[in-house]
Amino acid sequence: MKKGIQLMLALGIMAIGANAQKVNESKVPANVKSAFQKAHPGVTGVKWEMEKDNYEAAFTANDVKTSEVYNAKGQLQETEVAVRFNDLPEAVRTKLKGLKVTETAKITRANGQVVFEAEVKGKDLLFDEKGNLIKP
Questions:
Q1: Which pairs from 29-34 meet CB under 8 Å and 24+ separation?
Q2: Which structural domains are found in the chain, ordered by start?
Q3: What is the DSSP letter of 64?
Q4: Distance of alpha carbon 102 from alpha carbon 129, whole angstroms
Q5: For this UniProt entry, which residues form the secretion signal (predicted)?
Q6: Could you identify which of 55, 91, 105, 106 might form a hypothetical disulfide with 117, taking C-beta atoms 3.0 to 4.6 angstroms apart as the criterion?
Q7: pTM over cut 0.90
Q8: In the chain, which residues have pLDDT < 70?
């Protein structure tokens, strides 16, 4: 019961924070595009979104869905890589037992912190490697 309440609370919090908007590449600052291109030369088909005051580049590289978030100065804030459910830490998989998970990812933040994301009922839940739910 407690786990269910925690997950519902997290879903509510995530719904409030989800506000990404598509943005035309021509509206992305040159330093952001330059930082992305330097990190990923030759990658095409990039889709850009605004995530609060940051720019998110979504792309596929080596058959892996990836997204990166850059601040307006062109500094990388985090990298999100799609992973299979079975590649999540066991503690995270245990917390998600019985829930319908539609997407999973590993997120590495600029400070080196790694968190795991699971989409449940259209909302993103974040966990640390021990399976603890993280606030957005």
A1: 29/55, 29/72, 29/74, 31/73, 31/74, 32/70, 32/72, 32/74, 34/74
A2: 2-134 (3.10.450.360)
A3: E
A4: 19
A5: 1-20
A6: 105
A7: no
A8: 1-19, 136
